[in-house]
């Protein structure tokens, strides 16, 4: 009984912490993480073409972590579609990491393709280009 109660308490505490972290993330922090994903994406083709499994797995796993944070960010803003795209990207990036570790380069390519498609969809729908060439969240 005590284990169930402790488990329930831990789950509630973790959920509260995750929600508070998402609420605490501002647009500047969000953009910093998105730039990190952008840097990984720019290098991805070269690393995957070279079949550099260690780098592809590491970068993909980090990308999955970032997209989990993005999903929480969008949920806190009650933007369900963007949260769903972020969750899908997190799963696809995680699958990319697993495929790289297994040396399944066809799966690496297809899984990472989902990440790229979701990036494009989300950017088109939830990002606005400003006159100075920078972007902001709609």
Give an overview in words.
By secondary structure, this protein is mainly α. The protein has a single domain (26-137), classed as Four Helix Bundle (Hemerythrin (Met), subunit A). 83% of the residues lie in helices and 4% in strands. The protein contains five helices and two strands, in the order αααααββ. It has helices at 2-24, 27-49, 53-76, 80-102, 105-126, and strands at residues 127-129, 135-137. It has a two-stranded antiparallel ribbon. The longest helix has 24 residues, at 53-76. The chain is globular and about 40 Å long. 25% of the residues are buried. The model is unreliable at 5-19 (pLDDT under 50).
Main β-sheet, in a few words? 2 strands, antiparallel
Radius of gyration: 17 Å
- For the record, the CATH architecture stands as Up-down Bundle
The average pLDDT score comes to: 87
Structural class: mainly alpha
In the CATH scheme, the class would be Mainly Alpha
Count of extended strands = 2
CATH topology: Four Helix Bundle (Hemerythrin (Met), subunit A)
Number of domains: 1
Q: Gap between N and C termini, in Å?
A: 47 Å
Bin the strand percentage.
under 5%
What order do the helices and strands follow?
HHHHHEE
Poorly predicted sequence stretches spanning 5 or more consecutive residues: 5-19
């Amino acid at each position: 009984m005590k284990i169930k109660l402790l488990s329930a308490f831990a789950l509630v505490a973790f959920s509260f912490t995750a929600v508070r972290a998402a609420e605490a993330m501002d647009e500047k922090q969000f953009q910093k993480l998105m730039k990190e994903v952008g840097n990984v994406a720019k290098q991805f083709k070269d690393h995957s073409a070279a079949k550099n499994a260690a780098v592809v797995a590491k970068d993909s796993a980090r990308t999955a972590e970032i997209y989990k944070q993005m999903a929480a960010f969008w949920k806190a803003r009650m933007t369900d579609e963007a949260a769903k795209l972020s969750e899908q990207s997190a799963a696809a990036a995680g699958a990319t990491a697993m495929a790289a570790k297994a040396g399944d380069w066809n799966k690496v390519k297809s899984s990472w393709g989902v990440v790229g498609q979701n990036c494009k969809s989300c950017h088109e729908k939830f990002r606005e280009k400003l006159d100075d060439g920078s972007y902001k969240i709609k």
